[in-house]
């Protein structure tokens, strides 16, 4: 932390000076998450809180689709991302044209988009969802069949939780698809009382081994509520570091895979971002108007 301290101080000072806030996703490293983050959470919490802040500038410490979502929620604010190359394998797995083709192939079937997509893709969809509310969003439509894009694994997980027929896309999270059920069975054999909690972006054989499946915020809540002696956290590496703060009595097994996109965000880049007000994230207003509807429909649902 000594090496981080000058950056943390400079960033905190600049935030005050410029009336800026930092939205930090649960996958940020602890010096960002605990050192400079103002609003912390999963994708759903960050999208909701972005809409409420009265700051002039939001620095999005997360990936590009999250910054776009903040721009949709607060078009009048300046949204900065410390590294615009912070992408997401799910967001890059599908284009707006792909969604139009899906609509033509499945006329009348509503399209739910996971929040991990570009604003251009959201603009083609009926409603957004996150890993925290996907089942409820799908069921809120009252339709017998729903397209749930772009994560094939989230779609398969949702299909196990609802009677609605789910049609999916072929996208996958490059971080979560690397976990295997065999790996987790190994942990359980070594310690039968261990609790395994997994993100729904994991493949089905991983989720089959899990005691709990949920969003990053859901995982944190589960650990702090249940305070298990030992937990296997099946998600991105920084989560365990951040949850360990909140659950000091729990020991963590960390079969972690790094998200190379999330890890592009660092304290020096955040400082530069605030200092020079770069890189600003904008969304074409015509696209934004339609994409916003999809996000707002989700946020307004009484879930
Ligand atoms: P959460 O909405 O659960 O935080 O997930 C976002 C994400 O990118 C997970 O890989
Ligand atoms: Fe995208 Fe996966 Fe990284 Fe989340 S962890 S931002 S879904 S690549």
Automatic annotation (TrEMBL):
Family the entry assigns: Belongs to the quinolinate synthase family. Type 2 subfamily.
GO cellular component: cytosol
Name of the protein: Quinolinate synthase
The reaction(s) this protein catalyses: iminosuccinate + dihydroxyacetone phosphate = quinolinate + phosphate + 2 H2O + H(+)
Binding annotation for iminosuccinate: 25, 43, 114-116, 131, 199-201, 216
Keyword Iron part of the UniProt annotation: yes
Broadest EC class assigned to this enzyme: transferase
Name of encoding gene: nadA
Residues that coordinate or bind [4Fe-4S] cluster: 88, 173, 259
Record localization: Cytoplasm
């Amino acid at each position: 932390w000594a090496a981080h301290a000058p950056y943390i101080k400079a960033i905190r000072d600049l935030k005050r000076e410029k009336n800026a806030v930092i939205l930090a996703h649960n996958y940020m490293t602890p010096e960002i998450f605990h050192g400079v983050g103002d609003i912390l959470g999963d994708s759903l919490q960050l999208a909701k809180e972005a809409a409420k802040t009265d700051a002039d500038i939001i620095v999005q410490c997360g990936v590009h689709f999250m910054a776009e979502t903040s721009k949709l929620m607060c078009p009048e604010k300046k949204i900065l991302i410390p590294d615009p190359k912070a992408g997401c394998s799910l967001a890059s797995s599908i284009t707006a044209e792909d969604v139009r083709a899906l609509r033509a192939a499945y006329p009348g079937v509503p399209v739910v988009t996971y929040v991990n997509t570009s604003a251009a893709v959201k603009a083609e969809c009926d409603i957004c969802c996150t890993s925290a509310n996907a089942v409820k969003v799908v069921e809120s439509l009252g339709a017998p069949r729903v397209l749930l894009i772009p994560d094939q694994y989230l779609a398969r997980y949702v299909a196990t939780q609802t009677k609605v027929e789910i049609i999916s896309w072929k996208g996958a999270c490059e971080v979560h698809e690397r976990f295997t059920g065999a790996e987790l069975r190994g942990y359980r054999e070594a310690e039968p009382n261990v609790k395994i909690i997994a993100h729904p972006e994991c493949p089905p054989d991983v989720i089959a081994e899990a005691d709990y499946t949920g969003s990053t915020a859901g995982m944190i809540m589960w650990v702090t509520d249940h305070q298990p002696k030992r937990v296997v956290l099946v998600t991105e590496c920084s989560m365990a570091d951040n949850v360990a703060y909140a659950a000091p009595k729990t020991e963590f097994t960390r079969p972690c895979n790094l998200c190379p996109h999330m890890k592009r965000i660092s304290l020096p880049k955040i400082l530069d971002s605030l200092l020079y007000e770069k890189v600003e994230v904008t969304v074409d207003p015509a696209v934004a108007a339609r994409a916003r509807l999809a996000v707002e429909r989700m946020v307004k649902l009484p879930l």
